[in-house]
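Late entry, magnesium ion complex.
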Amino acid sequence: MFDSLSDKFSSIIRNLSGKGKISEKNVEDAVEEIKNALLDADVNLRVVRRFINQTMEEAKGEKVLGAVNPGQMFTKIVYDKIVQLLSDPEGNKLNLKGKDTTSVILLMGLQGSGKTTLSHKLAYKLKKEGRSVMLVAADLVRPAAITQLEILGEKAGVPVFKIEGEKNPVTVTVKAIQKAKHDLIDTVIIDTSGRMNVDDQLMDEIKRIKDATNPDETLFVADAMTGQQAVEIAKDFEEKVGISGVVLTKFDSDTRGGAALSLRSVVGKPIKFVGVGEKIEDLEIFHPERIASRILGMGDVVSLVEKAQEQYDQKEAEKLQKKIAKNTYDLQDYLEQLEKMDKMGSMDKLIEMIPGAKGNISEEDLPLDELNREKAIIKSMTKFERSNYRIIGPSRRKRIAKGSGTSVGDVNKLLKKFEKSSRLMHKIMTNKKFQASMMNNMNMKAFM
Ligand SMILES: Nc1nc2c(ncn2[C@@H]2O[C@H](COP(=O)(O)OP(=O)(O)OP(=O)(O)O)[C@@H](O)[C@H]2O)c(=O)[nH]1
Ligand SMILES: [Mg+2]
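Prediction complete; structure with ligand written out below:
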């Protein structure tokens, strides 16, 4: 499963993780390698393009380049993107009714895709979960189909419904459901016939069965080894018949993984299960997180990278808090914060994220000119001046104003503002009584 893809991803990540600091070029190279790996794995081209664009955009941001461990942060982004690619907003659980009534699962797909095998795996699984199951032999095309289902039904320990000599699968399914209701069976699984190709006759027959049985789940069964073909056919079935989910069979023999990675995105329906062998217990619930970890060739990548991310944010915040408390927060720190604001994206976007601000605040209301001026002023200072602003006397102020293309008045204003705000921040950080009164004030304001 995903052998070669996982090998490639692991090596790309190992490469990046080995670096203490990574550049934009490193990220670009890694993303390019990921693109080639996905294409080699037979992932749909459009899906690859979207994946790559989104990953590149996020990975080039401050979070990766400025992270304590850029390799881990990059992994986290790729991991999240894969999970996103595989996940469906509706989840991947079977939607069946309660046991007090009868639910219907309709299986369909091309010849040899694994429908009949799946029907008994699913029966076995649902029976273990306490449901009563009946299999329905609605494949009336292949001569040995009914016998095959009977043998498998026996393995699963569930009854198989058949009508000897009947030619119309709609009649069989309708009667089967009547019988299930009568026998108080809560789950009916319908095994239908497959065809070599998608043809009108197959589509028409399946549609008639679907209309007559009103299934709770209409599962398209796809052979993972057929790659993009499986994806295209699933799309066809979704458009012409309507499906509620996909089961990818022969996942155990699929070394590339293209179908799994493309399906959700192209067809718009969740993968609900994967078949991982021929035996009755070889059926797994499709877990996007586990698959993503598998693809990245990592064990518990999730908690690992989440920790790294927390550490990054926390470390940063703690560092600043300590500095403020110790009164060592300096102009260099202030400059870095100003620059971070730039990297967060356009002001319009940021404003949109502030509750209630949209429409009330516009970019013009923000003191952008002033902030840019401040940045220029700090940049014209020496390192020593940035960390010891009190030593900046008249002649230094003149030099700094000249160097930054501003006036001495501007420099004075910045220094005054910085002194005032760092004193205030220090007070907030260290004085509990002050904190309490400030909280009170804020609460009062919220009510006014
Ligand atoms: N390795 C592996 N083989 C599987 C899996 N699912 C099914 N098979 C095999 O694939 C072959 C076809 O499976 P069937 O269940 O008969 O397929 P079908 O869709 O019912 O085929 P038709 O009824 O002819 O349309 C059998 O040899 C199964 O053992 C799986 O998840 N892994
Ligand atoms: Mg079959």
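Residues 299-308, 349-358, 439-448 have pLDDT under 50 and may be disordered. Will revisit in the morning.
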